[in-house]
Amino acid sequence: MTDQTDTLSGAPEPLTLGWEEWLSLPDLGLPAMRAKVDTGAKTSALHAFDIESFGSATRPRVRFTVHPIPGREDLIIPCSAEIVDRREVTSSNGETEMRYVIESALSIGGQSWPIELTLTDRRTMNTRMLLGRQALIEHVTVSPNDRFCQPKLSYDVYHSTKIAQAAPRRALRVAVLSREDNYSTRRLVEEGESRGHSVEVIDTARCYMAINALAPEVHYDGKRLPRYDAVIPRIGASITSYGTAITRQFETIGTYCVNGSQGITASRDKLYAHQLMAKHKIGMPVTAFASSPKDTGNLMGLVGAAPLIVKLLESTQGKGVVLAETKKAAESVIDAFRGLKANFLVQQFVKEAAGEDIRCLVIDGKVVASMKRTGADGDFRSNLHRGGSAKAVRITKEERETAIRATRAFGLGLAGVDLLRSSDGPKVLEVNSSPGFEGIEKASGKDIAGLLFDAIEMKVRPNPVRRRKTDSATEA
C-alpha cells in the first residue's frame, strides 16, 4: 500500500524529447500533430488561419481553423479557445507580429500538462507546431540530435468517424434574425451564451446585401457581417419577403440556416402551404379558394355545410380568422373580405376539436415537445396570443408522424405544427416557421432553446474529410 501511494504521489517520470515529436492537443480536437521542439524559441506556436476574436470584453474568445497535416489544405479542423493574452512575438526571421495567446493541454509520451500557444500562419513550415522552452516543464529534457523519442502517432485519426464524436464542443458564432426583443429571442441568446457561443441579434430590416457571383455579402450598420456558423431566422410576417431574401443571401454565402428561405416562404403563403400539404398527402381540413365573387356559392359548396372558417391568407396569431356559423353569415364575411380586396380561404370547421388544438414543436425531424391549447371562453381560436391556455399533452403515433411529415414537406429545421383532433385522424391547420418558445416551454417543461442548440451544434460540427486515393498513408 505504501509503495502504491508513493508511486501515485511521486514526481512524474523523466521525459526525453527529440528535436521533432508527435503530440496531441485534446482541448482543441487535434489528436495527432508533428511539432518541432526548439529550446531557442521562448513561446510555442500553432499553425492557424481565419483567426477571429468574438465574445464579451470580459471573457474574449478566439475562433480559428487548422490544417493539421502539411500539404493537406482540404482537411480543416475548426477550433476555439479563451484568449489569455495578446502579445508581440518576433519570429526566427526577425519579423514581429501581434498574436493571440491561448492555453491548451499538451499530451505527449503518455503525459499531459497545460501550455500556452500563440496563433500564427505556419503554412510555409514543415511542421504545424513549434514547441518552445516555456512549454518544457522540469522533468522534460531535449536531445537535439534525436528525432521521435516518444511514440509516433498517425494522421489516420483525422479520417475516422470517431474524431467528430470525440471533438470538444467548439464555440460557435450564431446570428438570430429578429426585430423583436421577446421571450424567444432572449432565450436563444441566453442559451447560446451559456454554452460559450457568441449569439448576435440582427435586425432583419436593417440588413442590406451585396449581390454578386464571386463575393456575396450581407452588411449591417455600415459593416460587412462576419462569417457565422449558423443563422436562426425569426422573420416577422410583416417583412416576410425581405426577411427571406436576407436568409437566401446567407444560404448563398454557405451559412447553415435553421430554416431555409423556401420553407419560410411556403409556410407564410397559406394557399401555397395547403397545396403543398395536399401534394404530400398530409391530413388537413377541407379547404377551398376562389378569386371571383361569382364563385362564392360554389366555393362554399366545395367545403360543405356551415359552420365554416373564413381565413385571410396573411392571418397570424388568430387574427383574420372568422367562424361563420350559418351560410348567410359566411356569405357576409366573404363579401366583406372581397370588399377589402383581401385574399382568403374557406375551410371546413372541425366540430369535434371543440376549440382545442395541439401544437407540436419539431426540431431536426423530431417532435421534442407538444401542448394542447384551449381557446378562451366563447372563442373558437386557441392561440395563446388570443387569451387561450395551454398544458402538456401526450400525442399519438399518428399525430407525431403527421407533424414530422408536415415539417419535412416544408424543409424546415424548426417548426410549430398545429393539429386538430378529428374523427378521421389529425388535421394540420398550420406549419409555423417561427414558433414561439414561451408557451411550450412552460407547458411542457422542456428546454426548447437548448434542444435547438443541440441540433445546431450537430449540424455545424465538422465532419472528417475522407482520405484521397493519392494521399500517402502517413507523413514521416
TrEMBL record:
Cofactor(s) this protein cannot do without: Mg(2+); Mn(2+)
Instruction: Reply yes or no: does the keyword Protein biosynthesis apply.
Output: yes
Q: Which UniProt keywords apply?
A: ATP-binding, Ligase, Magnesium, Manganese, Metal-binding, Nucleotide-binding, Protein biosynthesis, Ribonucleoprotein, Ribosomal protein
Keyword Ligase found:
yes
The family database entries (Pfam families) matched by this protein are listed as: RimK (PF08443), Rimk_N (PF18030), Zn_protease (PF05618)
Task: Name all ATP-grasp domain ranges.
Answer: 274-457
A GO CC annotation given for this chain: ribosome
BP GO terms, sorted: SOS response; translation
This entry's Gene Ontology molecular function terms read: ATP binding; metal ion binding; ribosomal S6-glutamic acid ligase activity
Q: According to its UniProt record, which protein family does this protein belong to?
A: In the C-terminal section; belongs to the RimK family.
Q: What is the official name of this protein in its record?
A: Probable alpha-L-glutamate ligase
Please report the organism this UniProt entry assigns to the protein: Donghicola eburneus
Gene encoding the protein: rimK
